[in-house]
Design a protein that fits this description.
The structure holds two protein chains of two kinds. Chain A is built from ten helices and no strands. By secondary structure, chain A is mostly helical. Chain A has one domain. The longest helix of chain A is centred in the N-terminal third of the chain and has 35 residues, at 50-84. By secondary structure, chain B is of the alpha/beta class. Chain B has a single domain (2-248), classed as 3-Layer(aba) Sandwich (Rossmann fold). Chain B is 36% helix and 27% strand. Chain B is built from nine helices and ten strands. In chain B, strand 4 and strand 5 (74-75) form a beta hairpin. Classes of the chains: A mainly alpha, B alpha/beta. Chains A and B meet through helix 1, helix 4 and helix 10 of A and strand 1, helix 2 and helix 3 of B.
């Protein structure tokens, strides 16, 4: 049983990565877009202390890059496959659609990691700011856990998009939601208090803050634990929502033919 | 093997820009028929008659609004995962493939989705590639293929799980005569193996030569079901084409 699930996830992941490499638009998303974002944030923060530069220009660029690659690509893949006619085809196989899509999202995550690493390196080299991480182990662990969290958000988004064709509006605005509300480009305290609640239901807010703490502090503080708790809790909530969305999809898609172009 | 009982299926769409109105259109209006194992069953009718919707319900992609469909004695709304293991389908046209990948990559992926045992997978894929005559281009990207080659790949994909029932919605559309003959040979060979085939087509000669039973369908209703020869006799004409013209002479295609 578990072997079958892993086979589906692995196969969908490989297919996704092969497809992605073959798409010229994705080269823009994975290579060019991160460089532009890196340059933009780099110029904004170039006169600030190194700690601010690393926190916003480097971690901010890396997070935005990662987010664009995983969430945006995963959601737009649903749409693309719908127009190709492949979405209905793979949905109608004996496999659980959740695992098929999970494989695709993980494929995008691995591609996003490459993009994130490149952007991190690019900003460091262009602006001559060394990458100094006070607590590298915490940084790596948080980075890995934030990937899981992004995968779960992407599963929620892709599920909603498969249920409703109108989900495209949500997909196209997701990039900006993360740029504006998660503290990737500027501290969230700047955001008006009445919309700040949105920041706290998005796990990138916690992931970015934790990465910053790991970059600047060598010890684990109370604040670190508080934000880690937030990241883990939200990720678990996303997991349950994604399972629920895909169960809903299984029923709605057959009833309303949402997997096809009408 | 397949039992379709009084099925209905409606589609909801929205009309208007400011004042959005819901419009319900019934694509299938109370269809019933049975298909025994090993038969080639044809669904014939003009565009918009309800053939594709009927096929989509039989392949478990859509649920009927009313009525029931049973395949292998299993209800399609409850046991669809069990049914999906033993059926496959071609929805027609060139879509439903990953164009940026090769034919082999497409077949490997679908073999995984249908849990084809690893030890059988390589040989089955090779056999299918040879069967549809794509051996020289199997590692080229699908986007470089002609329409006919994509259609042949669809056929190979539909056979990847060695299904008991194959649903083919206009499988010869756009194929040249050689490729059409090749597909006819494949269909007859599958019938020889005891497989059941549900076929829709607009080519009456094809339906006449392949099908054991044909259901003429219009406006989501079945007009008549019989063997091609009986259809011809009943209508007192020479070919199935004439039967079609008799049934649909006043019908203007909707798409």
């Amino acid at each position: 049983m578990m072997r079958d699930i892993l086979r589906i996830i692995n196969s969908s992941m490989k297919l996704q990565m092969k497809q992605t490499f073959a798409r010229s638009m994705y080269k823009y998303t994975i290579l060019v877009f991160p460089l532009f974002t890196g340059l933009l944030l780099g110029f904004v923060y170039m006169d600030r202390p190194d700690s601010d530069f690393v926190s916003y220009a480097m971690i901010g660029t890396a997070t935005m890059t990662m987010w664009s690659s995983i969430a945006f690509s995963s959601a737009s893949d649903v749409n693309r496959e719908r127009y190709m006619g492949a979405l209905a085809q793979i949905f109608n196989t004996p496999q659980n659609f959740y695992y098929i899509m999970l494989g695709k999202v993980i494929g995008n995550t691995l591609m996003g990691s490459i993009s994130m690493f490149l952007s991190f390196l690019f900003v460091s080299l262009v602006f001559g700011v060394p990458i100094v991480i006070a607590n590298p182990i915490a940084f790596i662990l948080i980075f890995l856990f934030s990937l899981i969290s992004y995968v779960m958000i992407s599963m929620v988004l892709s599920g909603f998009l498969a249920i409703s064709r109108q989900g495209r509006i949500l997909m196209n605005s997701m990039d900006y939601i993360v740029f504006l509300f998660t503290g990737s480009a500027f501290p969230i305290v700047i955001i008006p208090i009445y919309v700040r609640g949105l920041s706290y239901i998005l796990s990138p807010t916690y992931a970015i803050h934790l990465l910053r703490l790991a970059t600047t502090q060598s010890s684990i503080t109370q604040e670190f634990i508080y934000f880690l708790y937030g990241l883990v809790t939200l990720t678990i909530i996303y997991l349950f929502i994604s399972i629920w969305v895909y169960k809903l999809l299984d029923n709605k898609a057959r009833k309303h033919a949402t997997l096809e172009v009408v | 093997m397949i039992e379709v009982k009084n099925i209905y299926r409606g589609y909801e769409s929205k009309k208007g820009f400011f004042k959005r109105e819901k419009v319900l259109k019934n694509a299938v209006n109370g269809i019933s028929f049975n298909v025994p194992q090993g038969q080639i069953f044809g669904l014939i009718g003009p565009n918009g008659a309800g053939k594709t919707t009927t096929i989509k319900m039989m392949t478990t992609l859509l649920t009927p609004s009313k009525g029931s469909i049973s395949i292998f004695g299993l209800d399609i709304t409850k046991s669809y995962k069990e049914i999906q293991k033993r059926i496959n389908f071609i929805y027609g046209g060139e879509r439903s493939l990953y164009w940026r990948l090769s034919a082999r990559d497409n077949l490997i992926y679908f073999a995984d989705l249908y849990s084809v045992p690893k030890e059988l997978m390589k040989n089955r894929i090779e056999e299918l590639i040879v069967l549809v005559g794509l051996e020289k281009v199997a590692d080229n990207k699908v986007e470089t293929y002609s329409k006919g080659m994509k259609q042949r790949l669809q056929i190979a994909r539909a056979l990847i799980n060695n299904p008991d029932i194959i649903f083919m919605d206009e499988p010869t559309i756009g194929l040249d005569p050689t490729a059409t003959l090749l597909l006819h040979d494949i269909i007859l060979d599958l019938k020889g193996q005891g497989k059941t085939i549900i076929l829709t087509t607009h080519y009456m000669a094809e339906a006449e030569s392949l099908c054991d039973q044909i259901a003429f369908i219009n406006d989501g209703k079945i007009l008549d079901i019989d063997s091609p020869i009986n259809h011809i006799k009943k209508n007192n004409v020479k070919t199935l084409q004439d039967v079609y013209i008799n049934h649909f002479k006043d019908k203007k295609s909707v798409s």
